[in-house]
Design brief:
122 residues; mainly beta; six-stranded antiparallel β-sheet; 2 helices; 7% helix
């Protein structure tokens, strides 16, 4: 039997959180031990925010619905559904959803997201 050259992910790893954010990693360190890339589907509740961080990975974000705020090197950027952004590694950033509705988005990190590489300021 010939080995398949693709992987369908229908059981993503649900990352435990304490802030109401839902993170489902489809590919990455927690799901399939891939340290090159992580792909996660996220839902950030209204009022959610993370501490500032300076990740050692590039992060791409695509907004599916709602809005998400980014403070990037002191500049505030707000994205809405249908927009995307790439934030280069080693850039100081804060992610938040100060708005009144859930923000649903896809995040892709290269190399893969890791707590060892995120460098949060909390």
């Amino acid at each position: 039997m010939k080995a398949k050259k693709y992987t369908i992910q229908d059981k993503p790893f649900v990352v435990p959180t304490t802030d109401g954010k839902v993170i489902k990693e489809h590919f990455g360190l927690a799901t399939n031990h891939n340290d090159a890339i992580s792909i996660a589907h996220m839902k950030a509740p209204a009022g959610w925010s993370e501490p500032f961080q300076t990740p050692e990975f590039d992060e791409y974000t695509f907004i599916i619905r709602g809005k998400k705020q980014f403070i990037i090197d002191g500049e505030t950027v707000v994205l809405e559904a249908g927009q995307s952004i790439k934030i280069d590694r080693n850039t100081r950033v804060q992610y938040s959803n100060p708005f009144t509705e859930v923000c649903e988005y896809i995040a892709i990190c290269t190399p893969a997201f890791s707590m060892d590489l995120v460098n949060r300021e909390d």
